[in-house]
Sequence to fold (120 residues):
Amino acid sequence: MMKKLALGLLLTSIAGSAYAADLPAPPSAPYTKAPAIVSPVTNWSGFYIGAMGGYGKENSSDPLALKGGFGGGTVGYNWQFGQFVAGIEGDGAFADVNNSVTIGGVTVGAKLDALATVRG
Fold:
């Protein structure tokens, strides 16, 4: 029963003519060639804004290896000159990347509260 159903579905899917976009033109219609495909022009000039975040962990056996998360944003502006693009971008994030260890009654710690970059 299952084999007959599968064969019936297969034959139904390939049976008949499929013209789709290539429908035959009526005999009285003149033939016209399709227009040439034109690649869209991309312009990278303008302002942009985004968000970012993540988690960092030192791959170390050091007891003071830092770990924690951060999150913030990115802003920038680009200028396009023909095929070249120049721009400036900056980002900043608040962070909670830290660790501390107590050795012999003395606590030593390290912490990263924020980070930022600017680039052209």
